[in-house]
Structures are given as C-alpha cells and as structure tokens.
Inverse folding.
C-alpha cells in the first residue's frame, strides 16, 4: 500500500498476492490538509490482487481491476471537493465492487466498453449523479453490469450535452434492480436478464435513440410515478407494470408479457 502527498500516476501493471491500496494526497487513512490529489492509471494497464484493491483520490482514472475479495474506488476523497470524477477504461471484477464518492455525487465517465462483474452475489450500487461517455468523442461506449443474485441500484445515465448518452446498457442479476434516475443510450437498454423485478423510485424516462428497450425480465413497480419509455426506432418490451402513468413510444413494436396496472 502507498500514500502520496499529491497525485499518484500508475503506468505499469501490478500483480499482487495480497492487497493493493493506493491513496492520493493522503497520509494513512487521513486526507492531507492540502486536500486530495488525483489517482491516474493508464487505461491499458491492469491491477491484479489476491485480496483487496482500494484506490482513492479527488478524481480517478482506472484501467482493468481484478481482486480476490473486494474493490473499493472512491472519488472526492475526504469530501474536500465536489467535482471528482471516476473514469473507467477497463473491466472491473471482484466478489464485491464499491465505486463511491465521499460527497455522495458519483460521476462516472466511460472511455472504453466496460464490464463490472460482481461475482459474490452482493449488492452493486452505482447511484450516479451522472454516467456518460467522454466528451468530445467519435465513439460512445457501453456498460454491462452483472451482480449474480445481488441487487443493482442505478442513478442517472446519459441524458444531456454535459452528460451524453452511452452506447448501450446491459444489466444481469436475479436480485432487485432499483432505478433512481433516467437512462439514455444510443443502442440497446437491456434489462431482460435482470429477473428480480424493477423498482422506479422517481418519475423516470428510459430512452434508446436507435435500438430497443427491454424490461421483460421481471415486473415493474413504480406506484404513483410517471414512466416514459422512448424507442422511436426500435421495440419496447415490458412484463408487468404497476405505475401512475405510462408513456411508450416504439418505432416497431410494443410487447407486454403480462399486465399493465
């Protein structure tokens, strides 16, 4: 493990039998008085650890991470900033994955197609204030989440000039999926392998600009909320829906496999 009084820049691979812990602008567990630094890892590099991977800083840029027990990546380290961003450039695999922000405003940017594979059947929380692709970019990148039987919680994904649409979103879990924000993707929004049901906490809009929206893996509970599904050039697939108002735009077809209440 290492602590730095400023930034940490990693441009080499790490293979470790135990833990890897790297904290920017920190002395031990205490953030330096000058405030946090940045943790920057080249996105074509990797960290393999038999134990835990713990990374912290104001902003983080991450490549491929694989851990035997736990991955914890934290931005806005110490809560001394409010602009921290976590940039993901590689797959993340561990029994438990924690991607968090000390000011509770998690901002994630994709610079590659990324898979977050949680192998331990624990809950995966990505309650993002913003999740988008890098701007400007000739490419948009996709995100795949897998949590076994653990629940998955999502926040806002795409949806504006400052938070542009990702390429695609795929969620796989047999646990409950909770959505706290709207989703915008260029291609497929695929929850067909999220079979534990869906809870929509707020009025929510799910948009696929070019392809399909599939929530056919379980029932939707959004009592009293307004749900809008926009797939003007594709299909919308739902199973059962309990909601306040339901608005659907589908360019080719709408499939309801059970009931709408």
């Amino acid at each position: 493990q290492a602590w730095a009084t400023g930034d940490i820049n990693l441009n080499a691979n790490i293979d470790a039998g135990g833990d890897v812990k790297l904290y920017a602008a920190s002395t031990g567990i205490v953030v330096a008085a000058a405030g946090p630094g940045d943790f920057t890892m080249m996105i074509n590099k990797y960290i393999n650890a038999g134990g835990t991977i713990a990374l912290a800083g104001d902003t983080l840029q991450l490549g491929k991470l694989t851990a035997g027990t736990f991955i914890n990546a934290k931005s806005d380290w110490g809560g001394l900033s409010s602009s921290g961003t976590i940039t993901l450039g590689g797959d993340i695999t561990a029994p438990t994955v924690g991607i968090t922000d000390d000011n509770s405003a998690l901002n994630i940017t994709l610079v590659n197609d990324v898979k977050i594979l949680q192998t331990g059947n624990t809950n995966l929380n990505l309650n993002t204030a913003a999740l988008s692709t890098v701007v400007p970019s000739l490419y948009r990148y996709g995100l795949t989440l897998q949590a076994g039987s653990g629940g998955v919680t999502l926040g806002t994904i795409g949806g504006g000039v400052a938070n542009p649409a990702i390429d695609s979103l795929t969620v796989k879990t047999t646990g409950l999926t909770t959505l706290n924000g709207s989703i915008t993707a260029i291609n497929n929004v695929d929850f067909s392998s999220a079979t534990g049901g869906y809870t929509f906490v707020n009025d929510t809009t799910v948009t696929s600009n070019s392809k399909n929206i599939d929530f056919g893996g379980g029932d939707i509970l959004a009592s009293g909320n307004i749900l809008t599904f926009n797939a003007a050039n594709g299909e919308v697939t739902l199973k059962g829906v309990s909601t306040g108002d339901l608005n659907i735009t589908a360019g080719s077809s709408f499939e309801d496999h059970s009931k709408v209440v």
The first strand starts at residue 2 and ends at 3.
